[in-house]
């Protein structure tokens, strides 16, 4: 029986039939050729999502201008005929699964990358600094009209390459949105000033495509509310949607925000499912064409509820399909418990920001589909042992089982999850718990023998005579080498409930561990001070996550001290060294939250007995979940 009848009912966009209501919305992946051509890497990436059952794929941002319109170093392009044949390979591959595909046409405008323009100023409707403070050059009227033609050319190339439609990216503070927004468009020609003039650029693009490509579906993605005081509000967003419909748009894709309101575009874990559904409701009530909407959707249950409520006609899933390409197929098969959900950690965007291809903490295959996406069934009759049931160990066990190994996993605790059972304790971290449970369910589905509450030893492992051994036995908290003569504990003691402090607490460390431990303590009513030796907290953490954590701490009255190096812990508090000298910080408890290190006492006996064993995750060094799952997967492929 289908648990989600609306989610898996067919839909239509113009004349185009879509097999279900699941739309993969556009996300940059940085897997294309520098020439804009579709590569085997990006084809395999999208194929995994089509094979997983999605109804419609909207590609990453696809440039329409090779000169000043590049948004990423390795980005799809729709600018010349040489791109048509590789695009045809992509669309043919997607169509083989009954999935439809739109190319999202985009120009970044002043939110582009200066490194990709040869140092020339970025382009914009008006000379107003971008979100990074860089001053762009105002486009001439003739240049604006030329860009309209380039969008139309992009649609012609997309149709020639077999795409089922195109989407105009008119959201998130990129060029088309810059023309629409009163915050960014101060022009005095026919493309600026009045609301009607600000619409002109987008209208000419949509109507031009409809004239050049009759019957070719066009989606327009809008920011229904820019969440900025001098930007478009929801009332204006609804009018923009109506204008796009009147210009010929066949579907409206509802999003929100500008770069300046960044957390509203790319929400980290603290934002609940459906927090912005009022935007889609307002747009859907005002237009007759179908509406796609993103709503931080993580689960098929919630997606079904949105369709039942009439929030939108199609649900837009982005990061959920990075975490699990089989999200639709598992839901349709009645196995939602097997879905690896997105945890909102923002590692996907962090990787792109560093110039690397897309990756995912929950799914180590994401971005690696061509080279590591297929697990060979080559180990039938062999046995494998995994020591440790954290994310790296669970990933390793699942991969080994898919290869055909008879797998035994030992976990000294009474539940699987390892560090996930600590990471899910701060506020708003329930997605971590859900992912842990999905990975555990996956092991049950694959027949892995899980031994909980068993502290494995070399003798335990030797008795099983494994053909492969993966050591994922975690780490222990780092304790700084300073004089300690006061109440101290580790972040693990706090988050596992072993220690319950009250009163004034100093948290040593302003990384992810420290900030989340501070968040947990502040939520419990403690007076928290975060002490960080660097000049800023959140090193290596995606900006929107840091923003969210700092906002929460500020709301709870927590203090953050940077440039403070811990030198001693006393019964009265802590001593720290600053650029101005030594300072005393009173506190009742000091919590060390500066990370973890491998436990040599655990690992070394195993390596002495089994020199060929593979070590993954925190057992190698302090790891994020993304490195742990990637190592567990990749090392198990080669075991």
Question: What is the CA–CA distance across the termini?
Answer: 39 Å
Helix content, binned percent: 25-40%
Largest sheet: 8 strands, parallel, barrel
Low-confidence segments, given as residue ranges, are: none
**Percentage beta strand:** 15-25%
Structural class: alpha/beta
Radius of gyration: 26 Å
Record the SSE blueprint.
Elements: E1 11-13, E2 16-18, E3 22-24, H1 40-51, E4 56-63, H2 84-95, E5 100-106, E6 123-124, E7 137-138, H3 141-160, E8 165-170, H4 175-180, H5 195-212, E9 218-223, H6 234-247, E10 251-255, H7 262-265, H8 277-286, E11 291-294, H9 300-309, E12 314-317, H10 319-323, H11 327-332, H12 347-353, H13 369-372, E13 383-387, H14 391-403, E14 406-411, H15 420-423, H16 430-446, E15 449-452, H17 458-464, E16 468-471, E17 475-477, E18 488-490, H18 491-495, E19 504-508, H19 512-523, E20 527-531, H20 543-555, E21 559-561, E22 565-570, E23 573-578, E24 581-586, E25 589-592, E26 596-598, H21 600-609, E27 614-615, H22 625-637
Parallel strand pairs: 3-4, 3-12, 4-5, 5-8, 6-7, 8-9, 9-10, 10-11, 11-12, 13-14, 13-16, 14-15, 16-27, 18-25, 19-20, 19-25, 20-21
Antiparallel strand pairs: 1-2, 17-26, 22-23, 23-24
Written description of the protein model:
The chain is an alpha/beta fold and 639 residues long. The chain starts with 10 loop residues before the first strand and ends with a helix. The protein is 35% helix and 18% strand. Helix 6 (234-247) crosses helix 8 (277-286) and helix 19 runs parallel beside helix 20 (543-555). The protein has an eight-stranded parallel beta barrel with strand order 3-4-5-8-9-10-11-12, surrounded by seven helices. A five-stranded parallel β-sheet has the order 15-14-13-16-27, covered by helices on one side. The chain has 22 helices and 27 strands.
